[in-house]
Design a protein that fits this description.
alpha+beta, single chain, 9 strands
Length: about 650
Amino acid sequence: MLANTKILIRPSIELMGRFRYRQKMAALGFFLLIPLAVFLLLLVSRINYRLTLERSKGDGLVYVSHLLKLLQDVQQHRGLSAAYLSGGKGFKRLLYEKEQAVQQDIKELDAVDKLYGKKFGSSAGWRQIKQKWQNLLSSGHAVSGLTGLQGGNVYKNGASASIEAHTDMINDILSLISNVTGSSGLVLGVRRDSFYLVDAVSDKLPLAFENAGRIRALGLNILITGATGKRQRSEAAVFSSLVRLSLNRVQEDLRRAIDANPRIGPDLEPFTAGLASTADEFDVISQELSGGRVSVAASQFYSAMTNTINSGYLLASQVMMVLDKMAARSQIRLAAERDVLVIAALMSFLFIFYMYLGTSISILDSLNALVAASRRMALGDLDAKVPVSTRDEMALVAASFNDMAGNLKEQTENLRAKTDQLQESNLELDRFASIASHDLQEPLIALASNLKLLERRMRDADQDAKALLEDSLSVAGRMQNLVRNLLQYSRAGSRAGDKAASFEKIESMAALRSALVSLSALVEESGALVTYGELPAVPADPVQLSQLFQNLISNAIKFRGQAPPEVYISAEKSGVEWVFSVKDNGKGIAPEHTGRIFEMFFRAPGGGQVRGSGIGLATCKKIVERHGGRIWVESVPGEGSVIRFTIPEIILKTNP
């Protein structure tokens, strides 16, 4: 499971492996904090958007409340105009006063539209409403010297034309109320209570007021003119049904709003209770109008109807106050949420940064202590310890290092004692091998000399005696060669008995040429072609490097194939070491023997008449290892071999 996980996250492992711990933690913090910061930014933006929407709702309520006041006054002006034009001269003063009230409403709405008209896109609609009001006033000459009360075409054409002109203006006001409600976001949001309240105050209540105002204007016309024809009665019945329908819907909206938010019940229930009686009053009045049985005076009818309609406007005003309170509470709540969120985010970021610094310093202190102890140990101080000051994984690392240091010190002391013993033993073995090889050579030389003298004196001997003598000479020669090779092998670990040799950089080309001089007779006799590329300067023992080349080239020539031997020596850089190659076109080496040819006394089968001592390649290995390198062979039987060895580029200090 762990292996599969490592395979999946290998790119991450390789990436993080390139960074230091402080950079790793900074990267992790970056990738953790950026999404968190983006999320918090989006959340704060969302809260700010909702806060802006609630403020826009508050501005929309201000605009709609002024429009409702204008709607109320224009509707009353329509009723008074109908009464006055129908012959009710007693309504003249009231008509003038209402005209002034409308003018004041327009003045206030001008200021409101200046603030919010561009925001809600309501300025064009508002200018159209003002223009219709001006057209309504400037349609004829003044009446009875009352400034502002005129009676041109609208008045000249009677109450019906006046009602139609007022109604057209009122429809624009209703349309503007709907537009402002939508533009300000009053109908947006997920709160059911506010949705039902806005629906009631911006749509259903104004529609009910308008239909009630039509009944008021129609009733005044009937009472003053005495006209109770079929058309008037039908209009009264239709408007009454529309008022009843609208008020029923308003009651339903208010009930749903109170069910969704019982806290607004105390503010609305007194008005919702009166709404039912208002609907009943409209029913009674409408039935009287449709039956032509109204017996009250026109002024009393106007007052009763106006009071009834005003009670509805009072409900609308109360609903607007409730909506304003709800918007204000939402603004306070959203602002508090935003502030808490920002403070929590800042505290979280500060805490994360604080913990980042603590973790970073803790890890770096532990690592620095580990590095310092490692450096002391590298300089030979085996008493170096890492102080354990944490309880995390770094404490385990420190404890493991301290255990390792203790074990290493103990093992080092044991190894030093054994090394001293081994060095002494090696010195004795070197001395023994040197003395033995030297002493063995003397009797062998004497034996070979005697055999040669005996050969000269036995020129007339029979063939069997001569063959026996030649075999004895051959054996003596091989024995001399074997002893000489053993002496070379014993000295390969330390040059000529030098107890502390230091390698200096030498030209390997010079060592190769020295080897070729020693091999000149063999090269000439075998007809071998020895070539080489450019060779570098390396830190080495010049005598041993020359001996190494001599052994490898001699080996390549001796174990040749049918074709004349060809040997090529080259070198190339690989990291911090040089790789030398000695390539030949000889018989090659079977794969099962490539790993053993550097063993002492190993001789690969199939060598034919050529019999080596089995010491030359072992000596090469010992020389290469003394120089801190490696040696190996690559071969294909029948196609030749390549023996490669390495020498580090740095200057080595060695001991025997």
